[in-house]
């Protein structure tokens, strides 16, 4: 019997702004360690026996980020499934179950959010192994975390202590919503309550069985979306119309809270965090003698119990206590730790004002590499462009702007109208307005360039694509 990991890789992570943004959410960030949260999630599976290549449920906007980050850690054979719209975890997992069951009627799914931290990887692997017999028997296993504090930001699961399933697994008495502080303290003292981690282990057919009982309408819509799905390069696109027709709900509300004896709780203390806020990240980060965590170029005097992260510039903090300070190239957040969970309110304000800082960073990632705004003014802007080895931009043209390209390092192959040229370090070329052109990196090292755009309109939507290696439609 083999296990297929299903990694849920959607969401915008707005409570971790300004580092996490809708166009580049927290699962793609190295928030705790050198690897990103997605890479850590996939990496900790290597010690589980009979583990298959992962299936990652993501969306169209983030598909190339997922593919690139998996490539960086040498993960091969991953199946990338694209949701056309977000419908929460219930329908997403249903799609994964239907896809897996087509290949193997007895497929076992290990469902994992892509944006969690688990400090004790060895214990996690052991808990999965111990839970496998329950899943093989047709049970739906939910992983509970032994609480270390009366946390009010997590849902809880109460075990039925009278029905020990063996191996640290229990029948479930009830699922409990996020409690207030007083109830959370009672939960901690009782020893019967566990944090609801959002991780699951079950046979695909067992989940589909319960979904047919408690949400048959969702199963019908998702089944249609899978049956009508289309392969696009390395991605499987679920049918938009069918998947959009499904109602949106979590696996807990849709299935787990209704299944009674079919649910088993696997409990352990894993050093787990959903890294849902800056305060949560601060709580699992190393502290200095004054209770501070400093990352990046930070200068401090008289500061205590604070979390300060600098991404680009020097940040100085003086005589402050209990703060969260996060600096990026285009935004700085300053908040008390008590209010750090309300960062989403700032994002809502930015969205209401139509500001792009809620959506993208100054550095924007594309399937071929990235670009970063350096300077701009009336009728011009300057970008730093990085093209990955072997990658190329689309064959395109612009109606409203001309471009000057200067190679900083690497080698560029440039299609410029009817001419194709090779440019090396310190060489340049000019792309006139309305000229068909393409930029490629034929080398084995990244190509770094400076692009100077000039014209009456410089928006990203002034792109007409004629050929594209990544299946992007015109003006997308």
List the topology elements:
Layout: E1 3-8, H1 37-43, E2 55-59, H2 63-72, E3 79-83, H3 89-103, E4 108-113, E5 117-118, H4 121-136, E6 140-145, E7 156-166, E8 169-176, H5 181-190, E9 193-203, H6 204-214, H7 216-227, E10 230-232, E11 235-237, H8 240-244, H9 251-254, E12 263-268, E13 272-273, H10 278-283, E14 293-295, E15 298-301, E16 307-310, E17 315-318, E18 323-327, E19 332-336, H11 343-352, E20 363-366, E21 369-377, E22 380-387, E23 395-397, E24 401-409, E25 412-416, E26 419-423, E27 428-431, E28 437-440, E29 447-455, E30 464-467
Parallel strand pairs: 1-2, 1-4, 2-3, 3-11, 6-12, 14-16, 15-17, 16-18
Antiparallel strand pairs: 4-9, 5-13, 6-9, 7-8, 7-9, 8-12, 10-11, 18-19, 20-21, 21-22, 22-29, 23-30, 24-27, 24-29, 25-26, 25-28
Helix pairs in contact: 3-6, 3-7, 6-7
Your description of this structure?
Helices cover 22% and strands 34% of the residues. The chain has 476 residues and is an alpha/beta fold. The protein has 3 domains: 3-273, Spore Coat Polysaccharide Biosynthesis Protein SpsA, Chain A (Alpha-Beta Complex); 286-351, no CATH class; 363-467, Jelly Rolls, CATH 2.60.120.10. It has a 6-stranded antiparallel β-sheet with strand order 20-21-22-29-24-27, with no helix packed on it. A 5-stranded mixed beta barrel has the order 6-9-7-8-12. A hairpin with a 2-residue loop joins strand 10 and strand 11. Helix 6 (204-214) packs across helix 7. The longest helix has 16 residues, at 121-136. The two termini are 42 Å apart.
């Amino acid at each position: 019997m083999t296990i297929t990991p299903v990694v849920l890789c959607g969401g915008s992570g707005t409570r971790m702004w300004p580092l996490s943004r809708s166009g580049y959410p927290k699962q793609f960030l190295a928030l705790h360690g050198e690897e990103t949260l997605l890479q850590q999630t996939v990496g900790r599976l290597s010690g589980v026996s009979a583990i298959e290549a992962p299936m990652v449920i993501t969306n169209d906007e983030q598909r190339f980020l997922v593919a690139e980050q998996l490539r960086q850690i040498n993960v091969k054979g991953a199946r990338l499934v694209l949701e056309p719209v977000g419908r929460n975890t219930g329908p997403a997992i249903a799609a994964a179950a239907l896809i897996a069951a087509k290949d193997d009627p007895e497929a076992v799914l290990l469902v994992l959010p892509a944006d969690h931290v688990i400090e004790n990887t060895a214990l996690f692997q052991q808990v999965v192994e111990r839970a496998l017999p329950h899943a093989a028997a047709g049970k739906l296993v939910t992983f509970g975390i032994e609480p270390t504090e009366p946390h009010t930001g997590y849902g809880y699961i109460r075990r039925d202590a009278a029905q020990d399933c063996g191996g640290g697994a229990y029948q479930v008495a009830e699922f409990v919503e996020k409690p207030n502080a007083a109830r959370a303290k009672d939960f901690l003292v009782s020893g019967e309550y566990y944090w609801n981690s959002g991780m699951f282990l079950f046979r695909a057919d067992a989940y589909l069985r319960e979904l047919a009982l408690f949400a048959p309408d969702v199963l019908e819509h998702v089944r249609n979306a899978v049956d009508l799905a289309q392969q696009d390069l390395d991605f499987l696109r679920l049918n938009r119309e069918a998947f959009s027709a499904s109602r949106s709900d979590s696996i807990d509300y849709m299935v787990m809270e209704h299944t009674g004896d079919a649910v088993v709780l696997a409990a352990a203390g894993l050093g787990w965090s959903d890294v849902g806020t800056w305060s949560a990240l601060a709580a699992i980060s190393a502290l200095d003698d004054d209770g501070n965590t400093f990352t990046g170029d930070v200068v401090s005097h008289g500061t205590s119990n604070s979390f300060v992260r600098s991404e680009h510039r020097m940040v100085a903090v003086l005589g402050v206590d209990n703060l969260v300070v996060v600096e990026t190239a285009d935004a700085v957040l300053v908040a008390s730790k008590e209010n750090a969970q309300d960062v989403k309110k700032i994002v809502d304000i930015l969205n209401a004002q139509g500001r792009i800082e809620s959506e993208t960073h100054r550095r924007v990632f594309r399937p071929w590499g990235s670009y970063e705004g350096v300077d701009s003014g009336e009728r011009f802007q300057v970008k730093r462009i990085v093209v990955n080895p072997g990658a190329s931009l689309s064959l395109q043209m612009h109606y409203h702007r001309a471009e000057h390209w200067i190679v900083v390092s690497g080698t560029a192959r440039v299609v410029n109208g009817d001419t194709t040229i090779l440019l090396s370090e310190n060489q340049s070329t000019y792309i006139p307005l309305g000229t068909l052109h393409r930029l490629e990196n034929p080398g084995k090292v990244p190509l770094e360039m400076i692009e100077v755009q000039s014209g009456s309109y410089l928006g990203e939507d002034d792109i007409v694509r004629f050929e594209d290696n990544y299946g992007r439609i015109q003006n997308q």
